[in-house]
Design a protein that fits this description.
- The complex is a heterodimer of chains A (114) and B (114).
- By secondary structure, chain A is an all-beta fold.
- Chain A has no helices and eleven strands.
- In chain A, the strands form two sheets. In chain A, strands 2, 4, 5, 6, 9, 10 and 11 form a seven-stranded mixed sheet that branches. In chain A, strands 1-3-8-7 form a four-stranded antiparallel sheet, with no helix packed on it.
- Chain B is mainly β.
- Chain B is built from no helices and eleven strands.
- The N and C termini of chain B lie far apart (38 Å).
- The chains are: A mainly beta (114), B mainly beta (114).
- At the A-B interface, strand 5 and strand 9 of A face strand 5, strand 9 and strand 10 of B.
Amino acid sequence: DGGITQSPKYLFRKEGQNVTLSCEQNLNHDAMYWYRQDPGQGLRLIYYSQIVNDFQKGDIAEGYSVSREKKESFPLTVTSAQKNPTAFYLCASRDRSSYNSPLHFGNGTRLTVT
Amino acid sequence: QQQVKQSPQSLIVQKGGISIINCAYENTAFDYFPWYQQFPGKGPALLIAIRPDVSEKKEGRFTISFNKSAKQFSLHIMDSQPGDSATYFCAASSYGAGSYQLTFGKGTKLSVIP
Protein backbone atom coordinates (compact mmCIF):
# COMPACT_ATOMS: atom_id res chain seq x y z
CA ASP A 1 0.00 0.00 0.00
CA GLY A 2 1.37 3.41 -0.97
CA GLY A 3 1.21 6.14 1.55
CA ILE A 4 2.88 8.45 4.03
CA THR A 5 4.28 7.21 7.31
CA GLN A 6 4.81 9.59 10.17
CA SER A 7 6.53 8.47 13.30
CA PRO A 8 6.16 8.43 16.19
CA LYS A 9 2.42 8.99 16.68
CA TYR A 10 3.03 10.66 20.06
CA LEU A 11 6.17 12.47 21.14
CA PHE A 12 7.02 14.06 24.45
CA ARG A 13 9.94 16.40 25.04
CA LYS A 14 11.23 18.76 27.65
CA GLU A 15 11.39 22.44 26.90
CA GLY A 16 14.73 23.47 25.40
CA GLN A 17 15.31 20.23 23.51
CA ASN A 18 15.29 19.90 19.76
CA VAL A 19 13.14 17.10 18.36
CA THR A 20 12.92 15.58 14.89
CA LEU A 21 9.70 14.25 13.38
CA SER A 22 9.96 11.62 10.71
CA CYS A 23 8.04 11.56 7.41
CA GLU A 24 8.51 8.87 4.77
CA GLN A 25 6.49 8.39 1.58
CA ASN A 26 6.44 5.61 -1.01
CA LEU A 27 4.15 7.39 -3.47
CA ASN A 28 7.06 8.57 -5.62
CA HIS A 29 5.90 12.17 -5.16
CA ASP A 30 8.32 15.02 -5.74
CA ALA A 31 6.57 17.56 -3.52
CA MET A 32 6.35 17.22 0.25
CA TYR A 33 4.90 19.50 2.90
CA TRP A 34 4.77 20.01 6.65
CA TYR A 35 1.70 21.50 8.29
CA ARG A 36 0.94 22.37 11.87
CA GLN A 37 -2.60 21.92 13.20
CA ASP A 38 -3.87 23.65 16.32
CA PRO A 39 -7.51 23.62 17.52
CA GLY A 40 -9.50 26.26 15.66
CA GLN A 41 -6.49 27.33 13.58
CA GLY A 42 -6.78 25.05 10.60
CA LEU A 43 -3.68 23.81 8.81
CA ARG A 44 -0.72 26.16 8.62
CA LEU A 45 2.19 25.52 6.28
CA ILE A 46 5.61 25.25 7.91
CA TYR A 47 7.91 24.17 5.07
CA TYR A 48 7.59 22.58 1.68
CA SER A 49 9.92 20.93 -0.81
CA GLN A 50 9.38 20.63 -4.54
CA ILE A 51 12.42 18.45 -5.26
CA VAL A 52 15.32 16.78 -3.50
CA ASN A 53 17.84 19.17 -1.92
CA ASP A 54 15.46 22.11 -2.20
CA PHE A 55 12.91 23.47 0.26
CA GLN A 56 11.04 26.70 0.94
CA LYS A 57 9.67 28.37 4.05
CA GLY A 58 5.95 28.40 4.53
CA ASP A 59 3.85 30.78 6.60
CA ILE A 60 5.16 29.77 10.04
CA ALA A 61 8.75 28.53 9.51
CA GLU A 62 10.33 30.28 12.50
CA GLY A 63 11.72 27.77 14.99
CA TYR A 64 11.62 24.87 12.53
CA SER A 65 14.12 23.33 10.12
CA VAL A 66 13.90 20.64 7.44
CA SER A 67 16.07 18.64 5.10
CA ARG A 68 15.33 16.82 1.86
CA GLU A 69 18.25 14.53 1.11
CA LYS A 70 16.09 11.77 -0.35
CA LYS A 71 12.92 11.88 -2.39
CA GLU A 72 11.11 9.62 0.08
CA SER A 73 12.03 11.48 3.26
CA PHE A 74 11.29 14.96 4.62
CA PRO A 75 12.13 15.17 8.34
CA LEU A 76 11.10 18.19 10.40
CA THR A 77 13.13 19.44 13.35
CA VAL A 78 11.35 21.48 15.98
CA THR A 79 14.05 23.56 17.60
CA SER A 80 14.19 25.11 21.05
CA ALA A 81 13.59 28.47 19.32
CA GLN A 82 9.97 27.52 18.56
CA LYS A 83 8.03 29.32 21.27
CA ASN A 84 4.93 27.17 21.30
CA PRO A 85 5.85 23.75 19.87
CA THR A 86 3.03 21.66 21.33
CA ALA A 87 0.79 20.79 18.36
CA PHE A 88 -0.32 18.14 15.90
CA TYR A 89 2.10 17.95 12.95
CA LEU A 90 1.03 16.66 9.55
CA CYS A 91 3.24 15.68 6.64
CA ALA A 92 1.85 15.56 3.12
CA SER A 93 2.97 14.90 -0.43
CA ARG A 94 1.59 15.41 -3.92
CA ASP A 95 2.31 14.52 -7.51
CA ARG A 96 3.76 17.64 -9.12
CA SER A 97 3.30 16.32 -12.62
CA SER A 98 -0.48 16.60 -12.39
CA TYR A 99 -2.02 20.02 -11.96
CA ASN A 100 -4.21 20.25 -8.87
CA SER A 101 -3.45 16.70 -7.80
CA PRO A 102 -4.53 16.27 -4.18
CA LEU A 103 -2.39 16.35 -1.10
CA HIS A 104 -1.87 12.96 0.54
CA PHE A 105 -1.47 13.28 4.29
CA GLY A 106 0.11 11.05 6.90
CA ASN A 107 -1.68 10.38 10.19
CA GLY A 108 0.32 12.97 12.06
CA THR A 109 2.59 13.22 15.08
CA ARG A 110 1.26 14.79 18.24
CA LEU A 111 4.11 16.61 19.96
CA THR A 112 3.86 17.67 23.58
CA VAL A 113 6.57 19.86 25.08
CA THR A 114 6.58 20.49 28.82
CA GLN B 1 -4.07 37.37 6.75
CA GLN B 2 -6.80 34.77 6.46
CA GLN B 3 -7.43 34.23 2.78
CA VAL B 4 -10.12 31.57 3.15
CA LYS B 5 -12.82 32.15 5.77
CA GLN B 6 -14.81 29.11 6.86
CA SER B 7 -17.97 28.94 8.93
CA PRO B 8 -19.35 27.68 11.19
CA GLN B 9 -16.56 26.53 13.47
CA SER B 10 -18.74 23.68 14.74
CA LEU B 11 -22.01 22.15 13.61
CA ILE B 12 -24.41 19.67 15.15
CA VAL B 13 -26.89 17.97 12.82
CA GLN B 14 -29.40 15.20 13.41
CA LYS B 15 -29.09 12.00 11.46
CA GLY B 16 -30.79 12.39 8.11
CA GLY B 17 -30.45 16.16 8.08
CA ILE B 18 -28.48 18.44 5.78
CA SER B 19 -25.09 19.74 6.87
CA ILE B 20 -23.94 23.01 5.28
CA ILE B 21 -20.47 24.49 5.60
CA ASN B 22 -19.59 27.79 3.98
CA CYS B 23 -16.34 29.30 2.77
CA ALA B 24 -15.39 32.67 1.31
CA TYR B 25 -12.21 33.80 -0.34
CA GLU B 26 -10.65 37.05 -1.50
CA ASN B 27 -7.85 36.11 -3.85
CA THR B 28 -9.14 35.93 -7.42
CA ALA B 29 -6.03 33.96 -8.42
CA PHE B 30 -7.44 30.87 -6.71
CA ASP B 31 -8.41 28.37 -9.38
CA TYR B 32 -9.27 25.15 -7.59
CA PHE B 33 -11.34 24.54 -4.47
CA PRO B 34 -10.99 21.19 -2.67
CA TRP B 35 -12.63 20.00 0.52
CA TYR B 36 -10.79 17.73 2.93
CA GLN B 37 -12.30 15.46 5.59
CA GLN B 38 -10.41 14.60 8.75
CA PHE B 39 -11.34 11.97 11.34
CA PRO B 40 -9.91 12.20 14.88
CA GLY B 41 -6.30 11.10 15.08
CA LYS B 42 -5.97 10.87 11.31
CA GLY B 43 -4.66 13.07 8.53
CA PRO B 44 -7.09 14.90 6.24
CA ALA B 45 -8.15 13.24 3.00
CA LEU B 46 -9.58 14.78 -0.16
CA LEU B 47 -13.37 14.55 -0.20
CA ILE B 48 -14.48 16.51 -3.26
CA ALA B 49 -13.20 19.44 -5.31
CA ILE B 50 -14.48 21.97 -7.83
CA ARG B 51 -13.08 24.29 -10.47
CA PRO B 52 -14.44 27.87 -10.74
CA ASP B 53 -15.93 27.32 -14.20
CA VAL B 54 -18.49 24.95 -12.65
CA SER B 55 -21.30 26.10 -10.33
CA GLU B 56 -22.03 22.76 -8.70
CA LYS B 57 -20.44 19.35 -8.31
CA LYS B 58 -22.09 16.35 -6.74
CA GLU B 59 -20.54 13.09 -5.55
CA GLY B 60 -22.99 10.85 -3.76
CA ARG B 61 -24.36 12.70 -0.73
CA PHE B 62 -21.74 15.44 -1.00
CA THR B 63 -22.28 18.56 -3.12
CA ILE B 64 -20.13 21.65 -3.62
CA SER B 65 -21.92 24.84 -4.67
CA PHE B 66 -19.72 27.57 -6.11
CA ASN B 67 -20.56 31.25 -6.61
CA LYS B 68 -17.72 32.91 -8.47
CA SER B 69 -19.12 36.45 -8.40
CA ALA B 70 -19.62 36.31 -4.64
CA LYS B 71 -16.33 34.47 -4.12
CA GLN B 72 -18.06 31.89 -1.99
CA PHE B 73 -18.39 28.12 -2.01
CA SER B 74 -20.12 25.66 0.23
CA LEU B 75 -20.29 21.97 1.05
CA HIS B 76 -23.67 20.31 1.48
CA ILE B 77 -23.93 16.85 3.03
CA MET B 78 -27.33 15.35 2.35
CA ASP B 79 -28.84 12.68 4.60
CA SER B 80 -26.06 13.22 7.14
CA GLN B 81 -24.92 10.08 8.98
CA PRO B 82 -23.05 9.58 12.27
CA GLY B 83 -20.12 8.30 10.19
CA ASP B 84 -19.85 11.76 8.63
CA SER B 85 -18.82 13.17 12.02
CA ALA B 86 -15.42 14.68 11.31
CA THR B 87 -13.64 17.97 10.78
CA TYR B 88 -14.05 19.46 7.32
CA PHE B 89 -11.61 21.90 5.75
CA CYS B 90 -12.25 23.97 2.68
CA ALA B 91 -9.23 25.06 0.71
CA ALA B 92 -8.25 27.11 -2.28
CA SER B 93 -5.26 26.65 -4.53
CA SER B 94 -3.23 28.82 -6.82
CA TYR B 95 -0.09 28.30 -8.82
CA GLY B 96 2.64 30.88 -8.80
CA ALA B 97 6.42 31.23 -8.85
CA GLY B 98 6.77 27.58 -9.80
CA SER B 99 4.89 26.19 -6.86
CA TYR B 100 1.42 25.03 -5.97
CA GLN B 101 -0.02 26.78 -2.95
CA LEU B 102 -3.00 25.50 -0.99
CA THR B 103 -4.66 27.76 1.58
CA PHE B 104 -6.93 26.11 4.12
CA GLY B 105 -9.90 27.42 6.04
CA LYS B 106 -9.85 26.93 9.81
CA GLY B 107 -12.10 23.91 9.75
CA THR B 108 -15.61 22.92 10.83
CA LYS B 109 -16.18 20.18 13.36
CA LEU B 110 -19.33 18.31 12.35
CA SER B 111 -21.18 16.10 14.79
CA VAL B 112 -24.08 14.06 13.47
CA ILE B 113 -26.25 12.79 16.30
CA PRO B 114 -28.50 9.71 15.99
